[in-house]
Design goal:
Blueprint lengths: L25 H8 L1 H7 L3 E7 L5 E8 L1 H7 L9 E4 L4 E6 L4 E5 L1 H13 L8 H11 L2 H14 L1 E2 L17 H14 E10 H14 L7 H16 L4 E6 L2 E12 L6
Parallel strand pairs: 3-6
Antiparallel strand pairs: 1-2, 3-4, 4-5, 7-9, 8-9
């Protein structure tokens, strides 16, 4: 799904009575399109005024502000929600229909930047100004510089996709942790004299992962996830010396049992 091709225009068409407020320069255009970003990072371009043959001053963009365009790649007003997840060194965008974050390449973000830039091309009255838009500012060099700045301006840390975060990404490792938390909170019951076997707990957890269309985990990974949660929740530790039906050295938890109710 080429989401970056479906970005809507935020500013509504100007009415007849608003015609005098229509942006006349490229900086006015981007200040109107991205008011928050230009307020924080400054004007989109350094402009130089030149007098044309009719005596009118024409503003020509000569230098680009990479920071304001980097910030503009994640703009709620345009339906854009992009983050750079530092632990994975990966860009993600929020899919609006599924409400889930999906990976997006730097090349697609460069295409989004070029598309935003081209919307201002019709404001340029002089040949030099149009040439700067088409050739200089749309160049691979400038596109890469914008995306490089985006890595710091739109950076998020590991808490953004943590197990307790409201943000969800596709196939994230934190999804297993969320299922593990529900397993402990909703399927385990503290009951004196009961024993929950490690084998039974692991089998139930794997079934939960299958129901949520998640990849299975190894038993060692299950223990790394669930054992600390059970200790915190019920203050019981995994034991290796339990005795059941004449069997000794059974692994499990004492005074815990699995409930019969499976969470939806």
């Amino acid at each position: 799904m080429d989401w970056y091709k479906r970005v809507p225009d935020r500013p509504k068409p100007l009415s007849y009575n608003q015609a005098e407020n229509e942006p006349k320069t490229i900086n006015q255009h981007f200040s109107h399109l991205f008011p928050d970003q230009t307020a924080q990072f400054g004007q989109a371009f350094l402009e130089v005024g030149q007098r044309d043959s009719a005596g009118q001053i024409q503003a020509t963009p000569v230098c680009i502000n990479h920071d304001v365009f980097a910030a503009s790649l994640s703009d709620p007003g345009l339906g854009l929600d992009v983050v750079y997840f530092e632990p994975d060194m990966q860009f993600y965008y929020s899919e609006p229909f599924l409400n889930i974050y999906k990976p997006v390449s730097a090349e697609k973000l460069q295409g989004l930047y070029r598309g935003l830039l081209m919307r201002s091309a019709n404001l340029q009255k002089t040949t030099n100004a149009k040439l700067n838009i088409w050739a200089e500012f749309r160049s691979d060099k400038n596109a890469r510089l914008v995306i490089q700045r985006t890595k710091s301006i739109l950076a998020v840390d590991s808490s953004f996709f943590s197990a307790t975060s409201p943000h969800t990404r596709i196939r994230g490792i934190e999804l297993h942790e969320r299922v593990a938390r529900r397993f402990v909170d909703e399927l385990l019951v503290c009951e004196r004299g009961q024993i929950m076997l490690l084998t039974d707990a692991f089998s139930t957890f794997c079934n939960l992962l299958k129901e949520h269309s998640l990849e299975p985990v190894k038993r060692a990974d299950f223990k790394a996830l669930v054992v600390p949660m059970i200790k915190q929740q019920f203050d019981v530790c995994l034991r290796n010396d339990l005795r059941i039906d004449e069997r000794q050295g059974v692994r499990g938890w004492k005074n815990l049992r699995l409930s019969q109710t499976v969470p939806a």
